[in-house]
Amino acid sequence: MPAPTHPRSSRSAPQRVEVRLPWWAVALPAVAFALLLLMIINPAEATAAPGAPVLGQLIEHVLHFLIR
Predict the structure, then answer these.
(1) Alpha-carbon distance 43 to 47, whole Å?
(2) pLDDT value at position 44?
(3) Which among 20, 31, 41, 49 is least buried, having the fewest CB atoms inside 10 angstroms?
(4) What's the pTM value of the predicted model, to 2 decimals?
């Protein structure tokens, strides 16, 4: 006795998958890449000056890059 078969569905599987990223998921890696690129291009500016806060220098580099 043959087993009953299921009829095929007329609906097809979805063709596209849409991925939505928040803005910071693209911006943060781009900023990190730009900072690393600046360190490679100009290594003299990448070294910290004695007594200068690192966070302040990082902000200066980011602002310099964004304004340029």
Answers:
(1) 7
(2) 64
(3) 20
(4) 0.38
